[in-house]
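Kindly inspect the following:
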Amino acid sequence: MNRARMTQMTGKYMNHDMISLHTDLPELPEGRISLLYAVLGQQPDAAPQKELLTLVTSLVQMGLDTHDMVENAPQGASAAKSGLLAMRAQQLKVLAGDYFSSRFYHLLSQAGQIDTVRRLSEAICDINRLKVSLYGKMTQMKLNAEEYLHFGAELKSGLFLAFTGFMSGLYERAWPELVERFSRCEVLLQEMRKVEKMSSLDESWGMWHILQEGTEEDRRMLFERRDDPNLIKTLMHKYDIAEKLGSLLRQSTGQLQVLLQRLQSDKLLRELQPLIEPFLQAAGQQRATALKELG
């Protein structure tokens, strides 16, 4: 599914003046949606409903991602400073997330897809439990870099795993690993973009890697001066954060390509290749940059 068709499908449910004027929304999960659409198209029983199923999944994922953008309300003087507009933006994020999520019930019930409502509802509950677990580990500082990636991939793939029961044969066996590996590549690509900004190490793979592998002095400085851009740049270079992320992305992308080959469908491979290109390009650019710095 191309971007134009995806935008056309979701636009009538997501384009609201009040929301667009007063708050930001997360990006549509185009990669995972296109992956689901393409694989559902290979399933004889699910293919006739593939547009409806990908539409409702888009809306639910947007609802979850919009809620994730809601920040804790500031207290005291900072609360007054943030002003009415900031508070309204936060409130609209909550309302927008609720609205997007609610639309899937309506659309699926109209189509008589009650079992799909159950599957997605259970997936939402699992995702929320996973978020609580991740938050607990993060606040207690009991998380390592690999667990951070694993949680990220699980959160992105959770809704899409609900469609395993729609697959048959080889696809049923391959789908869970396929969507998890694709989601892991998405997480790694996001982390590489964070490195490019170099604005903060908070809530990043780089932070957990340094806390896991760094010296006691570097860990202490990371806690005390986490908003210092010079320190951030120094630590990122010292621990080769960009290079390590690039290596992990190359590894995961290679594993993803192997999985796709197992599906033994040239048509599906051609359809999915554009979804993998951003991962290949980012990993390749990082390697070229690293070689240039060495040379």
